[in-house]
Amino acid sequence: MTNSLPPIHIIGGGLAGSEAAWAAARAGVPVILHEMRPQRRTEAHQTGKLAEMVCSNSFRSDDAEYNAVGLLHAEMRRCGSLIMRCADGTQVPAGGALAVDREAFADAVTAAIESEPLITLERSEVAGLPPQEWDNVIIATGPLTSAPLAEALQSLTGEDSLAFFDAIAPIVHADSIDMSKAWFQSRYDKPGPGGTGRDYLNCAMDQEQYLAFIQALLDAPKTEFKEWEANTPYFEGCLPIEVMASRGPDTLRYGPMKPVGLTNPHTLEDGVKVRSYAIVQLRQDNALGTLYNLVGFQTKMKYAEQTRVFRMIPGLENAEFARLGGLHRNTFLNSPRLLDKQLRLKAQPRLRFAGQITGVEGYVESAAIGLLAGRMAAAERLGAASTPPPATTALGALLSHITGGADAETFQPMNINFGLFPPVPNRHKGRERKKAYTARAMADLQSWLGDFTLPSPAMRERVPAALAAGG
Questions:
Q1: Domains of the chain and any CATH numbers
Q2: What is the pLDDT at residue 457?
């Protein structure tokens, strides 16, 4: 049967835009997905593939019982997430985290979108505001929104753009790592999805090596900011390594270079393995295991300096880099002030927003808002009820935060965390308190999914049973 519904237009083919397109199409609504790459490139992307992951290959913790990120994974899977399906299908070992082969992941998302009959992929830039005849639009252009569209949005909202810098970690060829100094081990030997407990490469430093490395980070020439960039704040969850080093000599030892939970088998005292002063971890970046990225080593050092400084790390003296680190500018809306509970722009409700441009931080969070935006836009097109997920769920907590829960005067990008949830009773302590959050969330999510309603039996025939049941 030919679908006569007008299409939803989605601008941006990243994780959020791809997830939104999938969710809307699975609801039986046609979608036109606009992606400007490869016709127009960005400062950070390298390909024209959909859902290309730039900064990292990790979706972070997959622990759905005790971790808010893992809970968000579980909720998205329950909602039929394309991004989670492709992530699960392309995972690489990463301890307790869910990490992916980023090329295989992008290939899987692109193939799924291209093979979905209700999705039309248009490779062209939407310069400026979408045409007025597009009455149902999702803008998921991410932190690298093109200048014409960003300027049009700023003019429409009357808000100054908020921005922060996001830095990219370098990637090393595995066969260039000296395994007489490095070793495989996950922190506390913890296995994760597809992992063994030996999922990271570790490079240890003694105190003298560490202090010399810190000084090199501080002394290395950095990328120079343009005048208009000078006062742009970093996102605290993705600081360049040299910015962390500038905050004190021990900052990195309590951050990405912390040595706890790891023992260097190459260093023995009286036959006993000892804890190192500091440790650099590298995480597998592709399924073949030929590439590893330096965990937490986002940087704005100039390229030649990166090679010199990172080769000071024991085991990386002869490292060959598949990609050096970089820096790009991210922009996002003051969503608590500008968006309603349906992610629509108050100044022009035909426009919805999804992904990092809404002020969520992280790949999985961006995709989660894409999932919600796609479902909301589809429900609106179908004339169906669209109740936001409860704030007790990870999906609902994120949505509530960006649509009014955060203070608009101090709004900054936010990862999912239990601090965004309504509190559970005080009788729950420690890990059991976290488990109380996740158990409540999954129960409330199931109730929300079962509450999805459609306006009429005739309309119900247009919508797959999966959506009617909330899937």
A1: 8-159+333-468 (3.50.50.60), 167-329 (2.40.30.260)
A2: 36
